[in-house]
Structures are given as C-alpha cells and as structure tokens.
Design brief:
alpha+beta, Lipocalin
Length: 183
C-alpha cells in the first residue's frame, strides 16, 4: 500500500505532463510567429493570473532563444508593491513543431508542463496576448510598461473574443523605467 501511495502522485504528474499542449482546433492563435522578433522583454499589462502572481507588480517576461526549439524564460515581479520582495522564475519553453511557433510547452521545475499559446501578436511585435485553451489564465503584454487606453481596450476586446471573462482581468501596476532599480 505504501508503494502505491508513493507511485500514484508520480503517475499523475507524468500523465499530466504528457497531455498535449496543442489547443483544440478553432482556438485563436497566430500561425506564423517570427521567434527572433518575439524574443526580448515583455511587460505584463494585464492578466488573469495564477494565484502565485495575483498581487504582482512590475511583471516582466524575458525570452531568449536556446538550441533548437528551446526558449529560455526569465519572469520577474515584485510581490504586493513596487518595493515588495522580488521573485524570479525561470521556466523553459519548447516550441511545438507544426504550430507556426505559436504554441509552446512551458516547463516548470522539470515536471510541470503547461500550455502557452500566442493567440495574438501585433504586426510590429509591440503587443501580444498569451492564452490557454482552458481559458483559465491570460496575459496581455507589451514592449513598454504602459500602453494607451485605446490600445488596452482593443486588446481586452480580443481577450473577450477568445472566450475569457474579462471582468477577471487585473491591470498589473508597472513603474516607469526611469524609476526602476532592478532591471
């Protein structure tokens, strides 16, 4: 019995990590993402976040190319305020073959594999929407810490069109770059 208790969580984790990260047909996603243009820093403007980042400030995702289909990620934020404790996460992304570079498997702690779908990227690569087919989490990101209200509303409408409840979106407080000391 104790052996089963030990093996069951491992079996469940392996089963979950083996699940396909490809979204179901019809789920909105880009079809030809230029990875080199997509790399670099992205400021999280708004999100429906996992509970771990529900009080995040100054959220930034930084992407860089690894070998093959690998994407190195550095995600930083401050907890509860601009002077809050700094947190850093470094998951690894794997671009899924045949996805036009728009679907990634994000690997956390070498066991957890989560879907990451580039549902939208602007033609000049200055804003993006990252979604999941479960419609549980979503991120609106931009190349600058702030965007116009008009642009924000247009991106929120896109999130709504994907099927999210946009009343759950949280705007992420972002300091101007001139006031940051930890970039």
């Amino acid at each position: 019995m104790s052996r089963l208790r030990f093996l069951l969580p491992i079996i469940v984790l392996l089963s979950l990590s083996a699940c396909s990260v490809m979204p179901k047909p019809g789920f909105p996603r880009e079809h030809d993402v230029d990875l080199n243009r997509f790399m670099g820093p992205w400021y999280v403007i708004a999100h429906i976040p996992p509970s771990k980042t529900k009080n995040a400030y100054n959220e930034i995702e930084r992407y860089s190319r690894g070998q093959g289909n690998t994407i190195h990620v550095k995600f930083t934020y401050r907890e509860g305020g601009f002077n809050g404790k700094k947190h850093t996460m470094t998951p690894t992304g794997t671009v899924i073959d045949g996805s036009g570079n728009a679907v990634w498997a994000m690997h956390f702690y070498h066991v957890l594999r989560l879907q990451y779908v580039i549902s939208y990227v602007s033609p000049n690569y200055d804003s993006t929407i990252i979604a999941r087919s479960k419609r549980d989490y979503v991120w609106i990101m931009a190349r600058t810490p702030h965007i116009s209200e008009k642009r924000y509303k247009a991106l929120v409408q896109r999130v709504k069109n994907i099927g999210y409840d946009t009343s759950k979106l949280r705007k992420v407080p972002q300091q101007p770059l001139s006031e940051r000391h930890d970039l």
